[in-house]
């Protein structure tokens, strides 16, 4: 059932499920027999990560990193800060960044630059959603789920002021929700 604050469902639960399975199949081929470190970018990518890893045939190592560029706003500040670093060393390891959404590309460019200084064996990027038209910084994404229009989305891990992450679909909020004090 649609949450009362949601104006429009962009991607249904069923479509997400199908897409995640398709992405896992591709990863199963590309990482067959390997033990890559999956770097999940907190907090938005956690739901995607949880669904994705349960369809993987290889044994990934999980690690988490937290960066901030939005600070409870719906527009990127353009300044990326590292809030929490990885626990694992990635030197000489195959690394796959798991991200919920790429918008301006600033966050992933920063992360890629940062992680490459640690000399991983390989570094690839897997995102569920891509707002291609919003790109400010060029970034090569290796695995993409859906290309979506320039609309601020919530659900399936994505929040607005830390809310709506639990919704099983990806949707757009009613405009009046942005004006209400949370
Ligand atoms: P970028 O640095 O590419 O502009 O943005 C990446 C980050 O911005 C994502 O990890 C995500 O946290 C946030 N972001 C970008 N677009 C959206 C959106 O439509 N909804 C939500 N909830 N977060 C977004």
Task: Outline the structure in words.
By secondary structure, this protein is of the alpha/beta class. Helix content is 23%, strand content 29%. It has four helices and nine strands; from the N terminus they run βαβαβββαββββα. The strands form two sheets. Strands 4-3-2-5-6-7 form a six-stranded mixed sheet, with helices on both faces. Strand 5, helix 3 and strand 6 form a beta-alpha-beta unit. Helix 1 packs across helix 2. The longest helix has 18 residues. The chain is globular, with a radius of gyration of 16 Å. The mean pLDDT is 94. The structure holds guanosine-5'-monophosphate (5GP). Guanosine-5'-monophosphate binds next to strand 5, helix 3 and strand 8.
Chart the SSEs and their pairings.
Blueprint lengths: L5 E6 L1 H18 L6 E6 L3 H8 L7 E8 L12 E4 L9 E9 L3 H11 L5 E9 L12 E5 L5 E2 L15 E4 L1 H5 L3
Parallel strand pairs: 2-3, 2-5, 5-6, 6-7
Antiparallel strand pairs: 1-9, 3-4, 8-9
Oligomer: single chain
Which regions have little confidence, pLDDT < 50, spanning 5+ residues?
none
CATH architecture label name: 3-Layer(aba) Sandwich
Q: Span between N and C termini?
A: 22 Å
CATH class descriptor name: Alpha Beta
Please count the beta strands (DSSP E, at least 2 residues each): 9
Largest sheet: 6 strands, mixed
Overall mean pLDDT stands at 94
């Amino acid at each position: 059932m649609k949450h009362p604050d949601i104006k429009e469902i962009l991607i249904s639960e069923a479509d997400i499920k199908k897409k995640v399975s398709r992405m896992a199949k591709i990863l199963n081929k590309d990482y067959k027999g390997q033990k890559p470190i999956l770097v999940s970018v907190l907090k938005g990518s956690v739901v995607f990560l949880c669904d994705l890893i349960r369809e993987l045939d290889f044994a990934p190592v999980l690690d988490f990193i937290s960066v901030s560029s939005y600070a409870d706003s719906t527009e990127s500040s353009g300044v990326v800060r590292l809030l929490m670093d990885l626990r694992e060393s990635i030197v000489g390891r195959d690394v796959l960044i798991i991200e919920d959404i790429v918008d301006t590309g600033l966050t992933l460019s920063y992360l890629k630059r940062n992680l490459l200084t640690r000399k991983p064996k390989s570094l690839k990027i897997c995102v569920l959603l891509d707002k291609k038209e919003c790109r400010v910084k060029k970034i090569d994404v290796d695995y993409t789920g859906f290309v979506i229009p320039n609309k601020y989305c919530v659900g399936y891990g994505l929040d607005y002021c830390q809310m709506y992450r639990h919704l099983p679909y990806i949707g757009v909020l009613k405009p009046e929700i942005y004006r209400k004090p949370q």
